[in-house]
Amino acid sequence: MRAREYKFDVKRKLRVNELGAFRANSVIRFALELSDDARIAVHSAAMVIHRDAWNTGNTTYEAFALEEQPGDGTTALYSLTLDFEKDIDPENGEGLYYYHYAVQLADGSCFVIGGEKPVELDFLSHYVGERQLLLYRPDFTVSRRFKEGTVYHIFVDRFARSGKCPVKQGAVYDPDWENGTPQYAEYQGADVANNVFFGGDLYGVTQKLDYIASLGVRTIYLSPIFDAASNHKYDTGDYLSVDVMFGGDDALEELCREAKKRDIDILLDGVFNHTGADSIYFNKFGHYDSVGAYQSKESKWADWYEFQEFPERYTCWWGVKTLPRVSSEMEDYRQFICGEVVKKWMVLGVGGWRLDVADELSDSFLDDFREAVKEEDPDAVLLGEVWEDASDKISYGRRRRYLTGSQLDSVMNYPLRSGLISYILRGETEELRHATEGLYRRYPKETSDNLLNFLGTHDTERILTLFGGEEAGSKSNAELAALRLTDEERARAKKLVGLAYGILAGLPGVPCVFYGDEVGMEGYRDPFCRRPFPWHAMDSDLLRVYCSVGRARKSLPAFYDGGFRILSLTAFCFIYLRETERGESVLAAACKTGSLTLVFPTPVREYLSGSSDDIFRLRENEFGYFLIPQGMNPDRIKWKAEP
Fold it and tell me: For 460-488, what is each residue's pLDDT tens digit?
């Protein structure tokens, strides 16, 4: 027997079959369709809902009977309209719920159906695999402007140098921008000073704004920029000062001002789970004119940190002694960050924040931080570094509530990166299916539209190297520092990178380009993925792809506003549809292997090439964006994939 679930938003008068997260005051009509062979045998059907019990250890199950509806002679249809505000939990409706359908047969037996597919339902054994239902605050809003273009992720020391900024005490300057190798540890996990700089700064970023804008960029995401000893600056020394080697506060203010002229926002990396040991707050080495927590139990910052044996034994981030962990639950600390720090930089012109290791920040901190950011700018974006599914994430034994409307707008989309890589390299489809329609069902649509979608970051190997190079395996850092792609490997990898970015850019969420990926930068794991930008050796073929795709992403509302539906996902091709409520539709098609022929009922225009026809053929590693005219039924589009 086949079973399907359909959903309709009564208030908005909109089909929402692909969604499983709703505002807590929504009224949703659920329809259960059973194939005709079960019509006579079915006695009744019910939806059984219960709240997530992870944090409380107990929950209450509620059963709602479905009413049988007139069928079409081929199926049996049962429906239920739920007013979440009245029927679920009127006092505390937001949160994570699970549900299944219980179908009782005329002979007294019963079966349970659920699963995580958008429409098709699965038979469950021992109630494993219930459908997830996330209810979020009715007043939950996310950034509008953030989703309207591409994000460009810059590791500041390695992007562009102006020559205006001094080399501070303790820093080592490497002038070899074109050929220099980042400082690396003797072996993976060994200590490294991270005090060698190539001289990139914020003035340099400002000088390259026109180049950045040519990629369709709406937001620049900067690696940490506050005063710190290291080149990566995740060891914050002073939250209220931009590092002098990056140009100081004036350089950030100028960048924000000039970026705004090009309709570009600046997104800061907020590192609030830990500070540097070499900081004004901890001051382990006495470099600051302050009494730090390491120096005295009477320090005004002493309560921010946890000491097992003062002063040498203290809690650190993952045991790294240069990164003492801060208790983000401390009210004094929360008031400082959410008051002074947020206000200073947003008044200066910053348009949003990415929160480093969001899993390790307390709920109270995230609540306060969101309130502070939105008070300064309701349209500012707030992203969290969460590597897994954020809708049901468990961190340190607690179920988190990132997406119920009081904390994050959205998160970094690591599941999509993993799914795309598996698909491009091995033709595996299920991980990509889960990372697209699976997560889009579990997340609020507002969150899905603001997901940070990427192929690489400062924490991952370069996507070109991953697609074309040897596996890092057990190779030493010295070996990886010297390893480069052959011409043949590079040529193939470029095609795969272009295909992957073409797929990614049309999906719900915001495409994010790690500086240099668009011009063919190579590099294995950190720090080799953080080489200086090759301004005199840019790959023009890849750059053209990134620029044309960036323009499409910024110009087509269906890509940043539309719903999402997979039409075909096989080892040969990936075809999906983006449709807005206003009737704007784009079909994105990618041919992974062989060839793909698309046949439309009437001529359509392919956006990237500008050509119009009713038949298009894509070759291996090619993709296209097809503008569907209003009135065309997407179900009439035909395609054929050939090896």
Answer: 999 999 999 999 999 999 999 999 999 99
